[in-house]
Write a structure and sequence with these properties.
With 423 residues, this protein is an alpha/beta fold. The protein has 13 helices and 13 strands. The strands form two sheets. Strands 3-4-1-2-6-5-9-10-11-12-13 form an eleven-stranded mixed sheet, with helices on both faces. Strands 7-8 form a two-stranded antiparallel sheet. α1 packs antiparallel against α3, α7 packs across α12 and α8 crosses α9. The longest helix has 37 residues. It is globular and about 65 Å long. The N terminus is likely disordered.
Length: 423
């Protein structure tokens, strides 16, 4: 059934594309019906009548040049709308996960937490599942604006995420029962990319939390989030001019550092849970934010390491170490096919995730069927050829091992067949 479904979408899109190509090939202003194999019969007609026939033929091809693209757009919209039915694809995890949202004191920055919860909380008949998008359509509309889907009338391609479930128990208790004596849950404070938000990696963070850690996804207030809600209830939309690049990076780093300082006591107050090892991390622009936070942390800071995904090191605005630099604290960098080709390296260990694109470090490959996301990747690096669920699993296992032993050289950190050791 799945194969038939995928073939239908491909056939629909290809049929529309072929019609467009045929329409544009056929559109030749000097085209004359007299050039056909029956032209010898038409030569017997008066010239003025032949001219009229030419005009009619030209009008026909001009009409095709207009209607075929419109037909393509209609077919594309139909195929795309069908393709997101019963999407996104929620991966299975081997442990119950909870989620909640809280705010940091200084700017009211939102932080979405993902953490191990109890199976009782998950199976409770009164349990409420946290939504994939905290603000529903407001979140997806912000994402659509960023990629100009709203201007193209394609916002519906992301709107299905507004009503999706994250698979996490809303405000469930934190489960510490699987820890050994003297052990506490580790905490990863994570920074989203340029135009990202705290929700668009919900499935990935759920997978990480299922491995026995707390993930705190910070939604930055510097104007680089696709959309965020401030303490007064107003929406701050993406605005690249809200701050200068240096101001953005400084604000982002300060919010990460505040989360590192604030969350341990807040988690103990809310859940009677003590935090163990703390690391910072980020994707794309979030990686320079994490690097700046770690480098700028005060002496005695609890930051014990960094976990970076496709670090956009060129967005350091002269305030960060160069590409290939080592870190003063243990760090692991995971890079996609594109970033590997660009020879991006950072910290103690750089691992190339084979068959992963930039979008594999968020949930993008899971938002629609693979055939759709892989086709979209011809335009933007949304989904690589590797299985996106496996990519998230291997990344989560590796990060879990690193955050526990703080040793980038550990074979368990880099042992997956998906990983290629780079440096």
């Amino acid at each position: 059934m799945k194969k038939l479904y995928n073939l239908f979408i491909i056939a629909l899109c290809l049929s529309a594309a072929f019609h467009v190509i045929d329409g544009f090939i056929s559109y030749e202003p000097q085209y004359s019906i007299r050039s056909s194999s029956s032209s010898s019969c038409l030569q017997m007609l008066p010239p003025n009548l032949l001219s009229g026939i030419d005009d009619a033929a030209t009008l026909l091809t001009r009409s095709q040049a207009i209607t075929y693209p419109l037909g393509f757009l209609a077919a594309f919209r139909t195929g795309a709308a069908i393709s997101v039915i019963n999407q996104p694809q929620m991966p299975k995890v081997n442990a119950a996960v909870g989620s909640t949202v809280l705010r940091l004191p200084t700017y009211g920055t939102r932080v979405r937490l993902f953490y191990p919860t109890t199976s009782e909380a998950l199976n409770d008949s009164n349990a409420v599942m946290a939504p994939y998008c905290t603000d529903g359509l407001q979140t997806t509309n912000g994402m659509a604006r960023l990629v100009k889907f709203d201007a193209l009338g394609l916002s519906f391609l992301l709107a299905h995420l507004a009503n999706a479930s994250s698979g996490c128990v809303a405000d469930g208790p934190i489960n510490n029962s699987n820890l050994g004596d003297g052990e506490n849950l580790p905490l990863l404070v994570y920074s989203h990319g340029y135009g990202g938000n705290m929700d668009m990696s919900a499935f990935f963070f759920r997978t990480m939390a299922s491995k026995g850690m707390i993930v705190a996804a910070v939604e930055h207030t510097d104007g680089t989030a696709s959309s965020t809600v401030l303490p007064d209830g107003s929406e701050r939309k993406f605005n690249e001019y809200f701050m200068t690049g240096r101001q953005q990076l400084t604000r982002r780093a300060s919010e990460l550092l505040e989360a590192v300082e604030f969350l341990p006591s807040e988690l103990e107050r809310m859940y009677s849970t003590k935090v163990g090892t703390i690391m910072v991390g980020g994707h794309s622009y979030g990686a320079p934010s994490a690097i700046m936070a770690a480098n700028g942390a005060a002496e005695g800071s609890r930051i014990a390491g960094m976990i970076l995904h496709d670090p956009a090191l060129g967005m350091g605005y002269g305030m960060l170490p160069p590409n290939g630099a080592k870190s003063r604290i243990p760090s692991v960098t995971y890079i996609s096919d594109e970033y590997n080709k660009a020879k991006v390296r950072y910290g103690d260990l750089t691992l190339h995730v084979r068959g992963a694109y930039h979008g594999n470090f968020v949930d993008a490959p899971l938002w629609a069927p693979s055939v759709v996301m892989r086709t979209l990747s011809l335009l933007i690096p949304a989904a690589g050829p590797s299985n996106p669920v496996e990519v998230h699993e291997r990344l989560a296992e590796s990060a879990s091992e690193f955050i526990r032993n703080k040793n980038p050289a550990s074979l368990n950190v880099q042992s997956s067949k998906l990983f290629e050791f780079i440096a």
